Amino acid sequence: MQYLVQYAGHHNLKPRFRVEATRIDHDDGHWRVRTSVDTIPTRVVVVASGYTRVPHRPRWPGAFDGPLVHSAEYRNTRPYLGQDVLVVGAGNSGTEIAVDLAEGGAGRVRIAVRTPPNILRRDTKGFPTQLVGLAFQPMPAQLLDPMFRLLRKATIPDLSARGLPTPSAPFSQFRRTATVPIIDVGFIDAVRSGVIEVVPGVEALDGRAVVLADGSRVHPDAIVAATGYHPGLESLVGHVTAIGGHGIPSPQPGLHFLGIGIPLAGLLHQVGKDAREMAGDVARERRR
User: Fold this and answer.
1) What pTM does this model have?
2) Which end of the chain is more exposed for a tag (fewer CB within 10 A), N or C?
3) Separation CA 234–CA 59 (nearest Å)
4) What percentage of the chain's residues is helix, strand, coil (to nearest 5)?
């Protein structure tokens, strides 16, 4: 906390805590940021609220007569000791929660997977996998897809028999679904050993039952919906700029968005790079 206070003072920053930005308008060449307490006129606005701001909660038909929480609300395994738990979604949150539950005393753990994920080791013989993403991100998908398939074949065992076939076009899938590859934290071994069971995606809820994509039913005690997030910026800027795929808005002169994307190379690395470029753009706009 002391560092943040000193940082703000050094750079003459004036943070306003417990103040929510509710709407951004554009009038007479200026931007106006409406907040929960007032309206702020400004020449330049930077929205840096992040991609994973609002939990996405699918509207499954029916209802579940048991505990159902989003992964954003998951804290630890204590409420699930000895229980049959269904985790929905095979992104990094879903797979890490499934491993946590399996290791933390849940009676049975299943994970519902609609699209087989691309799985990568955290590192291979000490070489961080993230560096692969940094090096290969600029390359076209027609080259990256076979490279990722080779990397997976060399480092990840075949999990097809356990319900997780290798994606045929892993990088193209990432661009289409905006789901980053899973970084393994024990998920592979748990699936291979049967500690975590893979089942098809969820189609509907029916009391104590969950209807799966293949028509079968499971009867968990609780559900953790690791179904992702979205920026949730429609009410803030949807009237002044286009909202594109995956909820990502288009920048405008004087209106910038930072950290609202899904880079393969890692968010913190990309945000640092983008922030420096954006600072230059903002400086030029202020001079004009």
Assistant:
1) 0.87
2) N
3) 19
4) 35, 25, 40
Beta-bridged to residue 207, according to DSSP, are 64
Distance CA 280, CA 277 (A): 5
90-143 pLDDT, tens digit each: 999 999 999 999 999 999 999 999 988 888 887 666 656 666 666 566 666 677
Amino acid at 114: R
- Mean pLDDT of all residues in the chain? 90
CB atoms within 10 A of CB 47: 20
Q: Are 88 and 202 in contact (CB under 8 A)?
A: yes
Summarised one tens digit per residue, pLDDT across range 254-283 is 999 999 987 776 778 789 889 999 999 999
Token readout for 110 is 């299943």
Rounded Cα–Cα distance for residues 247 and 203 (Å): 23
E-assigned strand segments in the chain: 21-27, 30-35, 39-42, 45-47, 54-55, 68-70, 84-88, 108-113, 119-120, 123-124, 127-128, 182-183, 196-200, 202-206, 209-212, 217-218, 222-225, 229-230, 255-257
